[in-house]
Design a protein that fits this description.
about 600 residues; 7-stranded mixed sheet; alpha/beta
Length: about 600
């Protein structure tokens, strides 16, 4: 009797542990700051939110974008950067990225809402359809991919009312723990379009695969090492724009029909059948993230390297084959033969496998490679029949993983402390501080210069005052000057912004150095004109210690040979690893592959009438 009561009590507690299970839909786009949150990101988030809210119940949709501007309400701040052209000069302007029912994409808000609202909603067996936009990085302490969330938070004590958070990103490990702790019987299907998104496949699969001990005639020494602890994985799978180590395409401040390309744009347009610019229907939407992934990949000829979790699962088995099994002498004859077959596939062989799921993926990859070949005809032979060595030669050496320098707070200015600034030579600092600036300050303070130059006088007076306090906008310029112009123009309080004056400030942040040097060069004071001549001889600035390649920093409008080769070799590795697992009949891995593929193909629920 007591046992029956206990079982009944447990059942009642279980049924009351959360809300009734339902499918939910989340759009998350952090943006980082107004200087990084580009207009393309706003177009993506706005359109996806509109489609989710149109098709599904309001209480099942959450959108986190930028500072949290809500359509129809007072703006929080101008958090979206949009480039515009004025008199043949491209300048930055800002606008509030307002979206209906929007929430701030800050770390605190995102994690709290996931734990208290989103995960409880699906814990009973629902599906979380998660879409993540820009930005992403791989700069965490553990060297893992991160979702870069909104970094600014209100600070009444600060000069501009805002400050930067020092820990605003959400890494793979923490996000996996959060999902695993609250997902219950639910599941997650994700699509991520940010840079370094591929690391988030580790929400569902281990970073390294472990071989079956039965593959060896006797265990090698490296197999005897204590295995690494395996974390708790939530039921999750999905799609990413690129791998863990690469930047993605599509994030621009001046998107238009011609220059905006990439997975970021293509997958939502195919999924929902809408134009992200107009939000008008242009085609029939697709049934699942999986179908949209295929359509977007066939169209994407940028630096992107789209993949699924099941692809990445197999690619990690390929890494084990290359790093451990290829040169291992203690393999059984069957496994050795399977490794040899894997290597033949990487060299361009076409596996003849009867497994229907394998053949389906093989044909899908064949379509991808055919599309790549059409975009880069000169590389067609390489992509179709080139050896592994030839593909790797086209790809080039693996990129060195360089550390990112720590951020150190600078002097107090009219903006929150942010990134380290580039330095200037001691000679240039002396010329500016002792010769040009005093003369320039004199004509600015007197107002005399306004008879010869048109510029925002009060902003320039503000800059000169700040430069007396060691903030060298003239010498460092760039982002530091842009940010100062943003805060001075009042974009932190959008209702105070005068658009005409704000554009004048933005123009001056671009033209200031050149205009001052031109004025100084024409000066009757020989010391000032000589200093201008020396300051105009700018030394080449060292390249920033960024973790992106030249191709990523300056993407070509057409598909590059390098990217095409990377994608083709990836497809071979995926198929080769699958062929190996089938050959050795590794049932647990094959079962896991089926689970991931099935989860990826989860259809979106029917739209409400």
């Amino acid at each position: 009797m007591n046992r029956c009561l206990l079982l009944l009590l447990c059942a009642l507690m279980g049924s009351a542990s959360g809300l009734p299970a339902r499918d939910v839909f989340v759009m998350l786009s952090g943006g980082v700051s107004p200087f990084d949150n580009n207009y393309s990101q706003y177009l993506q988030a706005r359109a996806i939110n509109a489609c989710f809210e149109k098709n599904y119940p309001r209480d099942s949709v959450w959108t986190f974008f930028g500072a949290g501007n809500v359509e129809g309400e007072r703006a929080v701040m101008a958090d979206v950067c949009r480039k515009v052209t004025r008199d043949k000069l491209t300048i930055d302007t800002w606008l509030p990225g307002a979206i209906p029912h929007n929430l701030p994409a800050s770390r605190e808000v995102v994690l709290r809402v996931f734990r208290e609202e989103i995960l409880p909603a699906v814990a009973g067996g629902g599906t979380l359809f998660l879409f993540v936009g820009d930005h992403g990085s791989r700069a965490g302490r553990n060297g893992e991919s991160e979702i870069d969330l909104w970094e600014l938070t209100r600070d009444p004590r600060g000069s501009v009312g805002w400050r930067y958070e020092t820990n605003a990103a959400l890494g793979v490990t923490e996000f996996r723990r959060t999902l695993a702790a609250g997902i219950g019987k639910g599941r997650v299907v994700f699509c991520m379009t940010q840079c370094h998104a591929g690391g988030f496949h580790s929400l569902a699969i281990p970073a390294e695969m472990s071989p079956n001990p039965r593959w060896f005639s006797q265990p090698p020494d490296w197999l005897k090492a204590k295995p690494k602890a395996v974390p708790a994985f939530p039921r999750a799978a999905g799609f990413t724009a690129t791998d863990e180590f690469s930047a993605a395409s599509g994030c621009v401040a001046d998107p238009d029909e011609n220059n905006w390309a990439g997975y970021e744009r293509f997958i939502p347009e195919h999924l929902f059948g809408v134009d992200l610019f107009t939000r008008e229907t242009t085609r029939a939407g697709l049934r699942s993230f999986a179908e949209a992934h295929v359509a977007a990949t066939l169209q994407d000829f940028t630096i992107d390297k789209p993949s699924s979790t099941s692809d990445e699962f197999l690619e990690r088995w390929a890494t084990l084959l290359d790093s451990r099994l290829a040169g291992e002498r203690q393999l059984t004859a069957r496994v050795r033969s399977a490794v040899a077959a894997y290597q033949r596939t990487l060299d361009g062989g076409w596996p003849k496998i009867a497994d229907p799921a394998f053949r389906e993926r093989q044909m899908q990859f064949g379509r991808f490679i055919e599309s790549l070949s059409e975009q880069n005809p000169r590389s067609k032979t390489l992509l179709l029949t080139g050896t592994r060595k030839e593909l790797e030669l086209a790809i080039g050496p693996a990129r060195e993983r360089r550390p990112i320098p720590p951020v150190s707070p600078g002097p107090q200015t009219n903006r929150p402390p942010r990134r380290p600034r580039s330095g200037a030579s001691a000679e240039n600092r002396r010329l500016w501080r002792e010769t040009v600036r005093p003369a320039w300050t004199e004509v600015v303070e007197s107002g005399e210069i306004t008879n010869r130059l048109s510029f925002p006088l009060e902003f320039e007076k503000h800059l000169l005052k700040a430069e007396k306090e060691q903030n060298k906008f003239f010498l460092s310029g760039g982002q530091a000057l842009e940010e100062e112009g943003f805060w001075f123009s009042g974009y932190g309080q959008p209702e105070t912004v005068n658009p005409k004056k704000a554009e004048a400030v933005a123009r001056w942040t671009l033209e200031r150095r050149a205009k001052i040097i031109a004025w100084a060069a024409a000066s009757d004071d020989e010391d000032v004109s000589d200093a201008a001549a020396k300051l105009s001889q700018r030394r080449a600035r060292p390249r920033a210690n960024a973790q992106i390649s030249d191709e990523e920093a300056n993407p070509s409008p057409s598909l590059s040979k390098k990217t095409a080769a990377e994608r083709a070799l990836f497809y071979r590795r995926v198929l080769g690893a699958w062929e190996f697992l089938l050959a050795v009949n590794e049932r647990p891995a094959l079962a896991r592959l089926r689970e991931l593929t099935e989860l990826e193909r989860t259809p979106l629920p029917p739209a409400r009438p």
